[in-house]
Amino acid sequence: MCSKPGIDPELRPIAWKYLFGYLKWDYTEAENAARIEKKHQHYRIMKAFWKSMSVKQVRNSRVYRERRNIIEKDTFRTDRQVPLFRDDSSGALTRLYDVLITYTFYNNDLGDFVEYLCVWCDQVRPSENANLTGLRWMFCRVMRDCSYLYVTRGNIQAPNSNGLNVFSPFFLHRALHITVTCYFQGMNDLLAVIMTIIEGEEDAFWCFAGLLELIADNFSDGPSSLYSQFHNLFKLIEILMPNFAHFLREKEATSMSFCFKWFLIIFKREFSYDDIKILWETLFSGVAPKNFHLLIAVAIFDAEADSIMRTCQDMSQILQYINNLSEMINLNNVLSRAQGIFNQLSEVRDCLPNEVAVFLGFAPPPSSGPPGDGRHRSSVDEEGLLATCNFSLESAFPSSNSPPLNDNANDKSISAVEVGEDATNLMTNAHTMAESSGDP
């Protein structure tokens, strides 16, 4: 279900356009071709916005200046060990910079406003300075002060337009109160992977935008979404690895914030370029279970927990340990182990805390379930959550081919799990099966 080899590399330039929603599966070839042309035009309009801004307009746009400075620094240090980004002889760094800058105009509370203007001037081409001047005029005025817009009976009339352009007061409010979530450090890492597959600048932009839509909560909601993911990860560790959970409590590390970069940029820095492409295909193709990235994290901790508990004295050392795992993790082993853990949890889904059952997709959210449905437990049973639940060893690893996460894993001899053992043996079982079928 969730193992190598992923999509054929020769097919990726097309397949990824579908994977990230740039092309539509239910469109005809002609409809997708028309969609591409429209998206290319939209991108060129947004790019022409900032490319043609005057020095004065840039000076008056503090948000834009700040984002541009961050992007310049991030572009310079983006994966320089990768041949494509080693220097700018191929123009890749320039394209990466241009896409990121353009995205700051696309992904903020002004995004709908910009798109409305693109529709309003649907005949605009970058060479048509008059129309671009009108677009730029409106954009910079909204960025600076609503007093530059003409207000008529509660609606907004834009000068230099053919007729009345009407925006609701609520829409104006959103446009004027621009958030600064349009770019976060780390987005350059995500785009870099896409650019090694998608060559065209416009195509790379829309695949990048599609990827960020899939993980929008990581960026748009501030830290709250990531904190929720950390919370869910620790819940899984409590059930599957109680000794490690106890260690994290002792070290005051239950926030799991040392996993920040794992989730923010979807493990991009933990795996090689070849492996991260396969992992993303697994997570975003609709094949993997809900929140499978949490089980990927659990699988990594399963391999590293003993070493972490032995060598780390506080959370800062745990963070350093996690950072040192970068590009040292075997993806095939992680996917096999994570799938086995999921299969075992599925066998005992009725005994899981309701919160865990919901975020793993085993149960509907409480609001959508029948009143008084108490099928799932509401908290972790300290005496052994799964002590009364039966599950099958064979069903956890149907193929019995899960190798250890690295070649240096210590050999262990663990007896088969018997029906009725507690939650600790979920991980013990997975660990045993993985080691007994290591790489030849």
The amount of helix comes to 40-55%
| Overall shape | globular
**What proportion of the residues form beta strands (DSSP E)?**
under 5%
Write down how many β-strands occur, each being a DSSP E stretch of 2 or more residues: 2
Keywords: GTPase activation
Protein name: Rab-GAP TBC domain-containing protein
Domain Rab-GAP TBC: 6-287
GO molecular function: GTPase activator activity
Task: Describe what is shown at a glance.
The protein is an all-alpha fold and 440 residues long. It has 21 helices and two strands. A hairpin with a 2-residue loop joins strand 1 and strand 2.
Characterization of the model:
GO terms for molecular function: GTPase activator activity. It holds the Pfam family RabGAP-TBC. This is Rab-GAP TBC domain-containing protein. InterPro entries: Rab-GAP-TBC_dom (IPR000195), Rab-GAP_TBC_sf (IPR035969). With 440 residues, this protein is mostly helical. It has 21 helices and two strands. It has a two-stranded antiparallel ribbon with strand order 1-2. Helix 9 crosses helix 10 and helix 12 crosses helix 13.
